[in-house]
Design brief:
The N and C termini lie far apart (79 Å). This protein has two domains: 28-290, DD-peptidase/beta-lactamase superfamily (Beta-lactamase), CATH 3.40.710; 332-419, 2-Layer Sandwich (Alpha-Beta Plaits). The chain has helices at residues 3-24, 56-69, 83-86, 103-113, 116-127, 130-143, 166-179, 205-208, 248-267, 296-301, 332-341, 354-368, 399-411; strands at residues 29-34, 40-44, 78-80, 100-102, 191-194, 197-200, 212-220, 224-233, 236-245, 344-351, 376-384, 387-397, 417-419. It is an alpha+beta fold and 421 residues long. The radius of gyration is 24 Å and the shape is globular. Helix 4 packs across helix 5. A hairpin with a 2-residue loop joins strand 5 (191-194) and strand 6 (197-200). The protein contains 13 helices and 13 strands. Pfam families: Peptidase_S11 (PF00768).
Length: 421
């Protein structure tokens, strides 16, 4: 090889190292958008390419909804399970070859249990084969402006060619809610009854974050722990995407912080550009998030550095106006000051299920009318007499507001207890 060729090779190798090191150092990717306007509220590395894992299934279900609306498929249609679908690895519903499953049950299995076998059943029905359906998914992504996305399967199982970004997944989620509001409820279901079993939704954001009503979790060693979540508060909907958490608990906690930050910034009118206008020429490969621990073997198979992926925990600063500090003892003088300055609360009730607490909160908003703009509604997990319950509270009130709240709520036949600061 001549000196010029050697120089070119060295330059290309150096450029590749810069690109891959930049990708490997990407700690996480995140974005929050206003669902109605499509404007960005907050974002971090949102155009960085990432392995979508089971967030891929949002596109699978989007295309299923589109087929239903076009009359190509019906909720009560029955689908036959192929050998390929039955062979899918966990997570799965446990479908057997030759078994029949309805379209609606397949949808529910995907949205609540992230079932790979059910996703493939839908894909084969719509595309003839999973590979052809994946090509259809990529084509659909292109038509929606998801310029960083390419799909190789319907489930999100590991594949070097299956990539997306936080920005693209936010676009997709907004489109799903906008285009198919009548079917979005499948992503809000807290449980799935199938063959005599009641299976809980694996998306814990529905139980841990007030006003959250969907969407989807995802995990592979390459992607880390991913989450798309949508929350609606006072008629205002945000969509958040978080990619690359190092544990399931981290993704739910940091998504809560991400949504809190989003609601605070949106209340201030701090909007950025429309998400569909966000473009970036950074096409560096996706990082391999968990290659430093139990996923090191998978990292080697995917060509990633098995020593990479070690990083500090994600620390997204939560919004100040929407989440309250944990309860702590206060001195008598401080308690008096808080009571005078707007730190009263009212307790609306305890509930065995989070969905019942959500309903209680909505009923309270209806009873309060314009007064609901004061204070901060909150749902917290409490332990009472050995039972874990969901408690609905309204905090940040002064004494007069708290008394007026309870008066209005009780007039509608609902429970209300004053909690002085």
């Amino acid at each position: 090889m001549n000196p010029v060729s050697n120089l070119k090779t060295s330059l290309l190798a150096g450029a590749f190292l810069l690109l891959t090191s930049g990708a490997a150092s990407a700690r996480y990717a995140a974005i929050v958008i206003d669902a109605d306007s499509g404007r960005i509220v907050h974002e971090v590395e949102s155009t960085q390419r990432w392995y979508p894992a089971s967030l891929t299934k949002v596109m699978t279900i989007y295309m299923t909804f589109a087929a239903i609306e076009a009359g190509q498929l019906h909720l009560r249609d029955t689908l036959s399970v192929s050998a390929h679908a039955a062979r899918q690895p966990t997570s799965k519903l446990g479908l057997r070859q030759g078994q029949a499953i309805s379209v609606e049950n397949a949808i529910m299995a995907v949205t609540t249990r992230s079932a790979n076998d059910a996703a493939v059943v839908l894909a084969e029905r719509l595309g003839g084969s999973e590979s052809r359906f994946a090509a259809m998914m990529t084509q659909q992504a292109r038509s929606m402006g998801m310029y960083n996305s390419s799909f190789q399967n319907a489930s999100g199982l590991p594949d070097e060619g299956q990539i997306s970004s936080a920005r693209d997944l936010a676009l997709l989620s907004a489109a799903l809610i906008r285009d198919f509001p009548q079917y979005y409820r499948y992503f809000s279901a807290t449980e799935f009854a199938y063959n005599g079993r009641v299976l809980p939704n694996t998306n814990k954001i529905l139980k841990t974050y007030p006003d959250a009503d969907g969407l989807k979790t995802g995990f592979t060693c390459g992607s880390g722990y991913n989450l798309i979540a949508s929350a609606r508060r006072d008629g205002h909907r945000l969509i958040g995407v978080l990619l690359g958490a190092h544990s399931s608990a981290e993704r739910f906690q940091q998504m809560a912080n991400l949504l809190d930050l989003g609601f605070e910034k949106s209340q201030l009118g701090a909007y950025g550009m429309p998400v569909d206008q966000l473009r970036d020429a950074n096409f560096t490969p996706p990082p391999f998030q968990l290659s430093s621990n139990r996923c090191a073997g998978s990292a080697a198979q995917m060509g990633a550095d098995s020593s990479s992926g070690a990083a500090d925990p994600i620390r997204i600063k939560p919004g100040k106006s929407t989440r309250l500090a944990e309860n702590r003892p206060v001195k008598t003088a401080e308690a008096k000051n808080r009571a005078a300055g707007g730190q009263w609360a009212v307790m609306l009730g305890d509930h065995g299920r989070k969905i019942d607490a959500d309903v209680n909160l909505k009923q309270a908003r209806y009873a309060l009318g314009p007064a609901a703009k004061s204070g901060q509604p909150h749902i917290v997990r409490v332990k009472t007499k050995g039972r874990m319950l969901w408690r609905t509270e309204w905090m940040g009130l002064n004494s007069n507001q708290a008394k007026d709240f309870c008066k209005k709520i009780r007039s509608k036949g609902q429970s209300c207890t004053l909690l002085p600061g």
